[in-house]
Specification:
Rossmann fold, 2 domains, seven-stranded parallel sheet, 7 strands, 14% strand, globular
Length: 272
């Protein structure tokens, strides 16, 4: 596959400051696309920008709260204003607050619904309008989860069931357009996605790296810990690059090819 296979194309990735989103942005940027990285934390996106530019690509950064409808719409409008087009929209931003429904917090449910569902809907809608306006052969990529394949995956799983439903519905709506909808369902991946999990559960994984890191609920783990963790537990944890490779494959297919659903998981599966 040519390293410049996406040359001349514009791509947006939300949740691009860490984990899967960051890996996707760097992968698409390395393939020649002008990447708009959008996320909450500018510093890691600056690092990704330098990496993309060192590989000969282009990158623009946008600090973003995806729960703000106007910010998402402005992100898409800004990308089109700067480059004249939009070819790939990756709705990746997401989070989980694992708890039982009986003991869960409504504010946590609201944050998951607004981030995982509403923000994704707004991103899809804004991308469709932009792609239609500029006449691009576009791809909308929605990052779901294997939790959407289980009927008992809690409130987080319910948000990902919604993502699968949205993706399938959009696919039907866009059959007469030159816009494809790709739904990607990762399994367990070594990222900071699990920062809201039980610290004792996470500590068991961290011990495998030999790192002396105190795990605090809600706080991110250092990148070097995650980088050390995944190779030691590769049977249980995938790498962000695995998801990025799947996304690059899907968006580099001819527009007459509809890559609908992709499951990417490690050899052994954890229930998320």
């Amino acid at each position: 596959m040519s390293e410049s296979i996406l040359s001349g194309k514009t791509a947006i990735v939300t949740g691009a400051s860490s984990g899967i989103g960051r890996a996707i942005a760097e992968k698409l940027g390395g393939a020649g696309a002008h990447i708009f990285l959008a996320g909450r934390s500018p510093e890691p996106m600056e690092t990704s920008k330098k990496k993309i530019e060192a590989a000969g690509g282009r990158a623009t950064l946008q600090r973003l709260d995806v729960r703000d409808v106007k910010q998402v719409r402005d992100l898409v409008a800004g990308a089109v204003a700067e480059t004249g087009r939009l070819d790939v929209m990756v709705n990746n931003a997401g989070l989980s607050h694992p708890s039982s429904i009986a003991d869960g917090e409504p504010d946590d449910w609201r944050e998951m619904l607004e981030t995982n569902v509403l923000a994704l809907l707004v991103g899809c809608q804004a991308a469709i309008r932009a792609m239609r306006e500029c006449g691009s052969d576009g791809h909308i990529v929605n990052i779901s989860s294997i939790a959407a394949l289980r009927p008992d995956s809690g409130v987080y799983g319910a948000t990902k069931h919604a993502v699968n439903c949205i993706s399938a519905t959009l696919r039907g709506e866009l059959e007469e357009d030159s816009i494809r909808v790709v739904n990607v369902m990762p399994g367990a991946v070594a990222t900071n996605f699990a920062r809201n999990f039980d610290p004792e559960f996470l500590a068991g994984f961290i011990q495998a790296t030999g790192s002396q890191v105190e795990v605090k609920k809600g706080e991110k783990l250092p990148d070097d810990v995650l980088d050390a963790l995944q190779p030691k537990l590769e049977q249980l944890l995938g790498a962000p690059e695995d998801i990025a490779n799947a996304v690059l494959y899907a968006v580099s297919q001819p527009i007459n090819v509809n890559v609908a659903d992709i499951v990417v998981r490690p050899a052994k599966q954890l229930n998320l």
